[in-house]
Amino acid sequence: MYELVSASQTNRWQQILDLFNITDIYYTCEYLVSALKLDPGQAVLFYFLDDSGEGEVAYPFIKREIKEDGILFYDITTPFGYGGPLLNVKGDGYKLAANFLTVFTKYCHAEKIAAEFIRFHPLLNNAEFFKDHLDLISVHNTYTLPLKSAIFHNQTDEHGNSVEYTVKKLGTVKHMFDFLVLYYSTIRMNEDTDSYYFFTNDYFESLVSALGPNLHLFGAYKENKLLAACYLLAKGEVIYHHLSGTAEGQGVPEAESELRRKIAVWGAENNYLYYHLGGKTLDGLEKSLASITSKISIDTSTYFISRLVHDKEIYKTFHPLEQTELIKRYGNV
After folding, report:
1. What domains can you pick out in the chain, each with its CATH number?
2. For residue 275, what are the β-bridge partners?
3. Which end of the chain has a smaller Cβ tally under 10 Å, C or N?
4. Cα distance between residue 241 and residue 233, in whole Å
């Protein structure tokens, strides 16, 4: 049995997430709506209840319309960030995943969905249940800082802001332009970044509108110059380092270090349990958070993506991506 929930059915969407005891922001209706600015289409939550009692699956995605040579068909994608099918296992999780895929594939054929692009969630490890059925592509490791330790509650008194750098919690609207200057500069410096990630003002305005108090902006200054800034997503137990930007010149790595440290302190003080740092190199993160990581280890998890083709003939007509292009497009920034 399955149920399709649209973005207009916000209460039902939340009821289903509550069945899974999930508070992760990437699964919320609000986040899917904000992501429509990047991937125009329909935000859908596919809820599957396994008839054999193995459990249930919640799968939010965006259904995108494609017209090619007069032919109308669709593809679906997990929004920028993380997601993928979320399992509530009551029996065998691997059987549940297989049963879900059987039903979901039939749904895709009926709805003329030619292809599916999945960004799995590294913290939830939901890719594990699909390893025997999908071609999983390991993109990179991601890193998460546990915030349970009392060390974070002592950081403010011991360190405060550094002598050179001041970290401020900024207005998500008021300081948006200041952030965008850094963000676009950072994206341009990385020649390998897919053009998809040159997000427009509309996307950031959509984040503010849809996520409200779950969106935060922090910036690190030297004197009056903004050197590093990032938008955070914060809901439930986890803070996500969603998008960031840096200036060019001396002092930027130190500013980034101070920015991350102060965000960790803020997160602990506001009762979050984890600070997800993203997928930068572990050495760089440990160095930038040396005052913390000398006492607490950073958790490592792998970020997987996958492509599932439901109609090979139609899929061929819209320029299939090679694996390197797929990683570049769906690997996040």
Report:
1. 2-141+303-330 (3.40.630.30), 150-295 (3.40.630.30)
2. 145, 239
3. N
4. 7
Structure tokens at 301: 């998890």
Give the residue-averaged pLDDT of 212-232: 95
Dist CA 144 CA 267 (whole Å): 13
The CA distance from 264 to 147, in Å, is: 7
β pairing state of 165-170 and 238-246: unpaired
d(CA 56, CA 73): 28
Residues in the chain, overall count: 333
Percent of the chain with pLDDT over 70: 86
> Hey, how many other C-beta atoms are within 10 angstroms of the C-beta on 249?
9
- Angle between helix axes 176-189 and 201-211 (nearest 10 degrees) is 130
Amino acid, res. 127: A
What pLDDT does 155 receive? 57
Residue 152: CB partners within 8 Å, gap ≥ 6?
264, 265, 267, 268, 269, 292
pTM of the model: 0.90
Q: Are strands 113-119 and 42-49 parallel, antiparallel or unpaired?
A: unpaired
Angle at 330 between CA 113 and CA 117, to 5 degrees: 20
pLDDT in tens, 154-175: 555 445 555 688 999 999 999 9
